[in-house]
Predict the structure.
Amino acid sequence: MSPNRPPRMTKGRSFVQQLVLVFFLVVLWVMLWDAVSLMHIITGVVLSLVVTRVFYLPPVVLSGRFNIIHALNYGLWFLYSLIIASVEVAWYAFRPRAVGAGSVIACDLRTSSDLLMTLVADTASLIPGSIIVDSDRALGVLYLHVLDCDSEEKVLNAKELVYHIEELLIKALGSHRDLAALKINPDPLADERGGDR
């Protein structure tokens, strides 16, 4: 076996990761302009190449696996949750009763992947009624502000939502290590629920 082989594989993987990063930066640029045109795509490619060359960006570590069925399941669940939560938040604005106090809750994630942690945070923030206010990357903890979360039951429901998002994303694109963590700890709220009884 040639001693030069591992570095070439590493370079190849690094190139693919760089390509993925450039692609998503271009997508973000086009979304910011809210229009798809050749000029927006070209300027997006140029700017993303400048950003990735001039500024230090930590490498995006990909798991190497992607499950299309679980990805579709995540996408459909996200759309459904987005619609239901939007209607619920709109109802809060029009109902005569005041909205209950919000809460900031901590969710200790099972994954140690920066990418998955970011996707969980983004998904939870995009669903109306909740937003990520802080995160602890070293410990894998997300701090989430939830609207109308003034009881222990509502806190547990909000945490359950975050853990469900994490589970869907791990099944879609998590590493084998993430899948093993999911099997070891399928219900992170078991202790808290047990304490309530």
Notes: Strands lie at 103-108, 130-136, 141-146. The longest helix spans residues 5-33. Helices lie at 5-33, 38-54, 68-94, 114-126, 152-173, 176-184, 190-196.
